[in-house]
Write a structure and sequence with these properties.
The protein is mostly helical. It is built from twelve helices and no strands.
């Protein structure tokens, strides 16, 4: 996914933890919500990074395979800082998957291959959100009594966390700014002049990204997209399973 000055991230991380720590220490409900968020975060990051590794491997680059990234072991894909930020800030990342575009087969250009690998992560998150929503409605349709038990309520909360976290991570990473996946996808479709300008000014875009992230602008921009996708999934599967969603 991405990698940049860790000192900046440490500062942001410290601020976010301080801002949220008091809430979790004094509010047991908030702490419980954080704990129930963990499975969704772990699943979202693990599958996201695995998708990057899998796409690169299928394109002929065995770098992720040699580095032990072609698996679904969360420990292979977790970045402590990115994981913590995803919990506290709602936006984060996993351990970046290293690739070598030179090793790609010649069915696609290196540029196209990089775009495919980059898009694979968010795409996997959207697939997980769809699968989670399908399971959510299937359980309500075929295991209604179970869903209203204490265990069923916990399962429902976990599923909702998986759905929302995967939508959020997928949408966030498609922002077309370095160092996010969306920037690599965007470059593939830019004309040569714009592409060169984009690459030459990459450091400026990094700064822009950090600013809009820290100030919360990124969240306010993508929140409507996340909500729209969530509502769309819920509405779509509600119709399939014959449920009525009250607005």
């Amino acid at each position: 996914m991405f990698n940049f000055d860790r000192r900046t991230i440490y500062i942001v991380l410290a601020i976010l933890i301080i801002m949220n720590l008091a809430q979790y220490l004094t509010d047991s409900q908030a702490l419980l919500g954080l704990v129930l968020t963990l499975p969704g975060v772990i699943i979202a990051i693990t599958f996201h990074e695995f998708a990057h590794a899998f796409a690169a491997d299928r394109l002929g680059d065995d770098t992720p395979r040699r580095q032990g990234r072609l698996n679904l072991n969360p420990l292979s894909h977790m970045d402590p800082i990115g994981f913590t930020l995803l919990l506290f800030a709602g936006f984060g990342w996993g351990k970046p998957v290293e690739i070598n575009p030179v090793r790609f087969n010649r069915k696609h250009s290196m540029e196209t291959g990089e775009a495919i690998v980059a898009f694979a992560g968010p795409l996997m998150n959207f697939i997980l959100a769809i699968v989670g929503t399908l399971i959510y409605f299937a359980m309500y349709r075929f295991a209604t009594s179970f869903m209203f038990t204490q265990t069923g309520i916990i399962v429902t909360i976990l599923l909702q966390g998986i759905i929302v976290t995967n939508i959020g991570l997928g949408v966030f990473n498609l922002i077309p700014l370095p160092p996010l996946d969306g920037s690599k996808v965007l470059i593939r479709f830019l004309p040569t002049g714009a592409k060169n300008w984009f690459i030459q000014n990459e450091q400026i875009f990094y700064i822009v990204f950090i600013v809009i992230w820290i100030t919360g602008i990124a969240g306010s921009v993508i929140s409507p997209a996340i909500q729209a996708m969530y509502n769309g999934l819920i509405g779509f599967f509600a119709q399939i399973f014959g449920f009525t969603i009250l607005s």
